[in-house]
Every structure is written in structure tokens, then in C-alpha cells.
Amino acid sequence: MSFIARDVSLQSRMRVEPPSALQIDIPRFRFKPATVDRFGFRHSSPHNEAVAAFETAVHGVAAHKPSTGADLSRAIVADPNLVAAHVLKGFANLILAREEFLAPARGAYRDARAALLAAGGGTGDEAALVQALGEALEGRFSRAAMRLDELVEENPRAFLPAKIAHALRFMLGDVSQMLAASTRLLKRWPLGAPGFGFLLGCHAFALEESGDLGAAERVGRCAIEIEPEDAWGLHAVSHVHEMQGRTREGIAWIERSRPIWTGCNNFCFHMAWHLALFHLETGAHDRVVAIYDDPSRRTTSAMWRTRFRSSGASSSKASPSAAAGTS
Ligand SMILES: [Fe+2]
Predict the structure, then answer these.
(1) How many angstroms separate the alpha carbon of residue 143 from the centre of ligand 1?
(2) Could you tell me the distance, in angstroms and rounded to a whole number, from the CA of residue 265 to the centre of ligand 1?
């Protein structure tokens, strides 16, 4: 279900209506409707179908869903000028951090800029998102994350930029900024607002990486309660178990949440790797080998690659989840 709100924003450009003897009071400025998606992002597109598909893709990014690439493709088919969809596709490819995905990321950036131009400059959110992708493509991840921070300062309900900034800082290993950003966000994010649970998952991971293991576990468990599909929060708690040597609890935690992480994109392999580590620590080598040899691992991997290539967008790490896949 989509929760699309309509909004009216004054675009930066001016459009002069054609002269007409019958229309003497035609406004010189044109107001262009913007669409605010359920995750707070402001699009210039008036196409609800495209925005609804984009919302699904954003949820997919947050939850590490393999369907994200297909959702982005649907959004772009519904509106080829949906700027944010092109940008997310670009980040999705870029965050995979593999050379073969750099060209698609650059292609998505070109499409995003063209869409922005077609939208007459787009909304402030769209322009900032495109700029951030441009910085990231030049290897300036920190500046890209700061540009996304600025976007969130101007639009405090914009979830996607916050999630992408978290992923970029994760890739940089910038734990202090990761924690500073999630702390700042959660201070003002309304309880229960879309994205809140996923942001808690980001905060839990930042806390864990900062060594505040008790808080990380509390926040991570809370994230899962609010967003049961928050694999990143689930993963943060697994890290706490690992760091504290709570091997049996770690196994139980990952086994209990198996229905969640087995539905993820390639992030499921990372969770399986954590599970195998726990079994290794107990000396259950047969279990470790069984996890490694699990036929579903190879099948899932092949399916994911096929989907990824056919969609032309990264469905895995495409997300900040991508980042998760390598932690
Ligand atoms: Fe991990």
C-alpha cells in the first residue's frame, strides 16, 4: 500500500505563460506539484504509480530484499524521469564496490541528470541526491554523505538519504560519523514514522562498532520489534553476540530469525557466515561444512546474479545492505 501525500512546492525556475488577450491575469510563476513518498522524499514526478514502486524499492533497500532491482525498474518504466529511482540505481551499483558495476552506476548518474533537467531542476531533495551520487562516483564518499546529511537537515523525514549516508560511512569505516549521524537522526525522528525501525537498526550497528555493546543490543532488539524485516538490526545483535562470546545465544538468535534473513538478497550469505562462525567456535565443524555446502546457497546466488543483471540494478548491496554484506 502506498501512502502518497500531495504537496505543492515552488520550483526554482520561472515559466512565463504564452500571451493571450483573454487571459490577462495569468500568473507568471507556475507551481509544480510534488509527490512526497511514504519515506518522506519529495519527488517532482506526479506519477503515483512510479512513486509507489519507488517506495517499495526503498523498503527493499532497507530490508535487503532481492526484489529491489525489479521495483526500481518498474518505477522507471512508470516514469522514466523519476530522478530518485535513477540515483538509487546508481548508488546500488556503486556500493557493490566492483569494477564491473561502475559503468552501470555512471550510466544511472547520466540518466538521473537528464531526468533532473527534464524536471526543470527537480525538487531540492532530487537535486541533492543527484549531487551526492556525483560526489560518490568521484570517490568522495565522505562529501557525498555530508551532502546527504544536508538534505536531511532540510527535509528531516527523508529516510533514503539517511540510509545511503550510513552505507557510505560503513564502507569508509567511519564509525564516529556513522554514530553521530544516527544519533542526530533519532533525536528528531517521530516514533513510528516510516523508516524509524530501520534507522534504529543503523544506530544499533553504529553502537556495536563503537563498542557500546549493551546499548547496541537493546536498540537492535527494539529495531526488530518495530521492523521485523530489519536484517541490518538483526545483524547488529549478532555482532554483539560474537563480540561477547555468547556463542549459543548467537546461534539461537540467527536460527530464530532464519525466516527473515533467508529472504534477503546476498546479505543472507553474510548471515549464514555469522552462523557458521558460531558453529566453528563450538567445534561443530560438520555444521560449518553443511552451511557452506548448502545447495540453496549456490542456487540463491545464481538467482540473485540473474535478477541483478536482468534488472540492470543492484538488488542486493544495492542498498546499504550491500555494505552489510561485507561487514
Ligand atoms: Fe557482520
Answers:
(1) 25
(2) 15
The H-assigned helical ranges of the chain are 48-63, 68-78, 83-94, 102-118, 124-137, 141-154, 159-172, 175-188, 196-210, 213-226, 231-243, 247-256, 258-261, 267-282, 285-293, 295-311, 320-325
pLDDT tens, position by position, 89-114: 999 999 988 889 999 999 999 999 99
- Residue 136: how many CA atoms within 13 Å on its side-chain side? 34
Distance of CA 235 from the midpoint of ligand 1 (Å): 6
CA 310 to ligand 1 center in whole angstroms: 28
What distance in angstroms lies between residue 156's CA and the mean position of ligand 1's atoms?
A: 29
Asked if residue 75 and residue 141 are part of one domain, the reply reads: yes
Three-state SS for 196? helix
- What's the gap in Å between 205 CA and the centre of ligand 1? 9
100 CA to centre of ligand 1 in angstroms = 24
Alpha carbon of 230 to ligand 1 centroid (Å)? 14
Per-residue confidence (pLDDT) for residue 318, from 0 to 100:
31
| Entry pTM | 0.82
Look at residues 156, 172, 188 and tell me which one is the last residue of a structural domain: 172
Residues 51 and 159 in one domain: yes
Reported as a single tens digit per residue, the pLDDT across 175-229 is 999 999 999 999 999 888 999 999 999 999 999 999 999 999 999 999 999 999 9
User: At CA 234, angle to CA 230 and CA 235, rounded to 5?
Assistant: 115
Tell me which residue range forms the domain holding 281: 250-316
Which residues, given as ranges, of the chain have pLDDT below 50? Answer: 1-31, 303-327
Q: Which three cell numbers stand for residue 32?
A: 509544480
Overall domain count for the chain: 3
Distance from the alpha carbon of residue 135 to the mean position of ligand 1, in angstroms: 27
Distance 231 CA to ligand 1 centre (A): 11
* 322 in any annotated domain: no
The answer on 22 and 133 residing in a single domain is: yes
Task: Based on the fold, state whether residues 156 and 276 are members of the same structural domain.
Answer: no
CATH number at residue 224: 1.25.40
Indicate whether 77 belongs to any domain.
yes
Domain check: are 183 and 312 in the same one?
Answer: no
Instruction: Compute, in angstroms, the gap from residue 270 CA to the centroid of ligand 1.
Output: 6
Q: Which of 244, 274, 290 is the last residue of a domain?
A: 244
Query: Ligand 1 centre from 275 Cα, in Å?
Result: 10
